[in-house]
Specification:
Elements (H helix, E strand, L loop, with lengths): L1 E10 L2 E12 L4 E5 L4 H4 L1 H11 L8 E7 L11 H11 L5 H5 L1 E3 L2 E2 L5 E2 L4 H10 L3 E5 H7 L7 E4 L2 H8 L29 H13 L3 E5 L5 H5 L11 H13 L14 E2 L7 H5 E2 L4 E2 L1 H4 L4 E4 L7 H5 L2 H6 L1 E6 L2 E6 L3 E6 L19 H7 L4 H4 L4 E5 L16 H18 L14 H8 L3 H14 L3 H18 L6 H11 L8
Parallel strand pairs: 3-4, 5-8, 8-9, 10-17, 10-18, 11-14, 14-17
Antiparallel strand pairs: 1-2, 2-4, 6-7, 12-13, 15-16
Helix pairs in contact: 2-3, 5-6, 8-17, 8-20, 17-20, 19-21, 20-21
């Protein structure tokens, strides 16, 4: 008699159903696991055997075979311990077979039978809901998995509790979703003295999810401005929060099962490897661009990143997803992020500072900014020069709008976009609009069209640059509450694209 339990194998954020088959047959005593298991899965037999011994359950002197189907799908991770133990317990007639066949299980076993939390409970719960099954997981993972409301989640502390649950001796209450973590941003835009043009660029970028680059001397406030972006972004919509949390679940970033509605803000160091930024490594794990999905990826000292790393950003910026291809894995991750970059104008940093002399003008700036290729620079919607702030200006009173005021205008602009693109599932912000849809929503009036054509001819805008100006103008119109794009909106959008200080050579 063959018994069956079910679990999942992860391919990116997708959880594929795996059938765990157990057969106990006459023969020399043995415990074999087949079906393309990795080292962690192969070692499950020793953890399962010892955990059962701690419960005074002795394995029979027969041949035990565990098959993980489909056999051609790689099985990685320690979460296969619990389903293997369940299939074996069913084969020994200790737990009802029909009960475990209606459940997807995952969890790592300790030698004393307790269940250790594992990664990926949220994607596993999504797979369980699609298969109309329940989910059995470690108690520490229950609050995270319970956010998927279409399936019953049972969080158990130990294998003994699982057995008592299935026998009806001590049923386990279904898990409740974790608390939504509230994030308070103490950094306010009014803390930044001056830099009104840069603040305006931040507001436009946040409203339409446009990519932005700051270029300025050291200490001019580039990082300070970027650090205030989370305070002006609207919270994640429920669908966005669930999608983002699935990626964070695979990376072990969810805190006590709580899902945050705050948009991710990732700021990798410029020494990070390509696998850390894009994804890859052992198991093709998600990188920083995927962890920033639906949020912000801030890359300070942008030209200092390795050239190969910067060039790999070009395709994800356009498509909103990245495919990590390895010899044994071909994984797709979503990565719809807002890229915010900061750079010095040259290696010494003072090319544009009139108070200091750069000894290698203009070669210093051309060599340094030349590390950013033209095609990559063309993907930035907003290019802003951040001039130095005199120390005497630091004593001036705070000026400009607060982050709360800006956040209100950004939220209103995003709401207009959500209503406009309600019938387009793949489009949520102006930066996603393209083709006929872009022409429909962002075509300017006659004067604006004339100005845009003149600017395209005069400054040699590429087709991509032309369309990005239209998207930015549409966002500026949304911030102004206008249904139509006018010459004023086009002019401001062009001004942010044609900044001499950040032109690529």
């Amino acid at each position: 008699m063959i018994t069956r339990a079910y679990t999942v194998a992860f391919q990116g954020i997708e959880a594929r159903l795996v059938e765990v088959q157990c057969a106990v047959t006459p023969g020399l005593p043995a415990f074999a696991i087949v079906g393309l298991p990795d080292k962690a899965v192969s070692e499950a037999r020793d953890r399962v055997r010892t955990a059962l011994s701690s419960m005074a359950i002795a394995l029979p002197s027969k041949r035990i075979t565990i098959n993980l189907s489909p056999a051609d799908l790689p099985k990685e991770g320690s979460h296969f311990d619990l389903p293997i133990a369940l299939a074996l317990l069913a084969a020994l007639d200790i737990v009802p077979r029909d009960s475990i066949e209606g459940t997807i299980a995952l969890g790592e076993l300790s030698l004393d039978g307790s269940l250790i939390p594992v990664l990926g409970a949220l994607p596993a719960a999504m797979a369980a809901a699609e298969e109309n099954r329940g989910l059995l997981c470690p108690k520490a993972c229950g609050a995270e998995a319970a956010w998927v409301g279409n399936t019953q989640v049972i969080g158990a502390a130990s294998l003994a509790d699982v057995v008592r649950h299935y026998l009806g001796q001590n049923p386990i209450a279904p898990s409740e979703p974790g608390v939504v973590t509230a994030t308070h941003y103490a950094r306010d835009l009014r803390d930044v003295k001056g830099q009104e043009r840069a603040k305006r660029a931040l507001e436009i970028a946040a409203a339409g999810r446009h990519h932005l680059i700051f270029v300025g001397t050291p200490g001019s406030g580039k990082s300070m401005l970027a650090a205030r972006i989370p305070g002006i972004l609207p919270p994640l919509r429920p669908s966005e929060a669930l999608e983002t949390s699935m990626i964070h679940s695979l990376s072990g970033l969810l805190d006590e099962g709580g899902i945050s509605r705050a948009r991710p803000f990732r700021e990798p160091h410029h020494t990070a490897s390509m696998a850390a930024i894009v994804g890859g490594g052992r198991g093709a794990k998600p990188g920083e661009i995927s962890l920033a999905h639906n949020g912000v990826l801030f890359m300070d000292e942008f030209p200092e990143f390795p050239r190969a790393v910067l060039e790999t950003l070009r395709q994800p910026i356009e498509t909103g997803e990245v495919i990590v291809a390895r010899a044994n894995a071909h994984v797709r991750y979503p990565c719809k992020f807002m890229l915010v970059a900061a750079a010095n104008p040259c290696k010494c940093g003072y090319l544009t500072d009139p108070a200091r002399a750069c000894a290698r003008v203009p070669q210093c700036g051309e060599d340094y900014m030349g590390r950013i290729s033209g095609p990559l620079m063309d993907r930035f919607d907003l290019r802003v020069d951040v001039p130095p702030v005199a120390f005497t200006d630091l004593d001036l009173p705070a000026s400009g709008d607060t982050s709360k005021d800006v956040a209100g205008r950004v939220a209103m602009a995003r709401q207009r976009q959500n209503e406009r693109y309600a019938d387009f599932p793949d489009v949520s912000e102006n930066s996603d609009a393209e083709g006929d849809l872009l022409e429909q929503v962002a075509t300017p009036d006659k004067e604006g069209k004339t100005l845009l054509i003149q600017a395209a001819e005069r400054f040699g805008l590429s087709a991509r640059g032309y369309h990005r100006v239209l998207r930015v103008a549409r966002t500026i119109a949304d911030l102004d509450g206008d249904d139509h794009v006018s010459r004023t909106h086009i002019a401001e959008a062009i001004s942010f694209r044609l900044n001499d200080a950040v032109q690529s050579p």
